[in-house]
Amino acid sequence: MIYYSKVSYTLLIVVFVVFFGPLIPNYIDEGFNSNMFLMTLALIILFGFVLHMFLNTTYKIEKGKLYIKCGFFNYNPVNIGEMKKVSKSSNIISSPAASFDRIEITYGKFDELIISPKYKTKFVEDLQKINPGIINNL
After folding, report:
1. pLDDT at position 33
2. Is residue 87 a contact partner of residue 138, using CB atoms and an 8 Å limit?
3. Is the predicted pLDDT of residue 93 greater than 80, yes or no?
4. Phi-psi region for residue 64, left (φ > 0), alpha (ψ -120 to 50) or beta?
């Protein structure tokens, strides 16, 4: 089963403003020149990669493991049998989550993972089918 990450468009707008906002005063002062064109082009390409990561973050449950893919990056699979608890999280730490509506999964001895599946309840139910011992604190 594959779950897509929920996408926070507010977060995406903030990233857009951070990328392109500083260019506005430069365009006002210097106008459109080749240096500004190259800078804008580089930022558009970089923002394209960020957008790809936002829109292509997936969580796949397969063969007792949780596989996480964020754009071009694959995370190490997490053994669902080692998961202990799932709870809501407002932690803004960098993670494979394209939204602020996140959940935290604790597993192993002291490990935790923060993700943002679009359909959290169904996602946790599917995890609990494999490991009924997971505590659901959503």
Report:
1. 86
2. yes
3. no
4. left
Q: What is the CATH number of the domain that holds 36?
A: 2.30.29.30
In a 10 Å sphere around its CB, with 0-12 CB exposed, 13-18 middle and 19+ buried, how is residue 51 labelled? middle
pLDDT digits (tens, 9 = 90+) for 32-81: 888 888 989 999 999 999 999 989 999 999 999 999 999 999 999 999 99
Q: Which two tokens stand for residue 38?
A: 């190259």
CB atoms within 10 A of CB 121: 10
Residue 76 DSSP label:
P
Domain count for the chain: 1
Considering only residues 84 and 34, tell me which one the structure prediction assigns the higher pLDDT.
84
- Written as six digits, the tokens of 51 are 């957008």
